[in-house]
Predict the structure.
Amino acid sequence: MVGQRGQAHTLEAVVAALMLLVSIGIALQMTAVTPLSASTSSQHLENQLEKTANGVLASNAETGGLKDAVLYWNTSSESFHNTAGDRAYYTEKPPEDLSLGRTLNRTLDARNVAYNVYIYYKTEDGDRDRQRMIYRGEPSEHAVTATHTVTVVGSDRLRKEHPQNTGGRVDQTDFYLDNSTSGTDGLYNQVRVEVVAWRI
């Protein structure tokens, strides 16, 4: 009798252990980790990348480099200076003449990070439009975005190939930005510079 009870307890223990192993196996299959799965580590990297992109914009805004980039326009070719082919924007590294270009090259390109730079602005009709400045492909689903606002006034001047050299006044020149304010207090347009960055 005692032997039968011992066998029954042993059998119960084996069945319980098997059920536990099966449960763990099913749980692991349902939560399988793949190289593309989000994790604490990848989220940390994305947060770092977002901070870096925001830092690039903020530091260039402080030194005037962000406005230089917005105004770095060639009215003859209707494109940013020295773009390739018939595109108005850059598809490779931005020029080192630009402070924004140098900073992007040092901080993002050096870390194998791809990025696009867009300039959003208000049109005369009050709509929002977008001008590509740098376009290097379709962002991944883990891309991060950083933005900074730049105010352009009518007396600002377009930048030539070397941004320290200036061209015509914004309010007397035909370029991609519209005068969206009808000259209110000299304001010409408020633009939002956006960097979309993702790891390659």
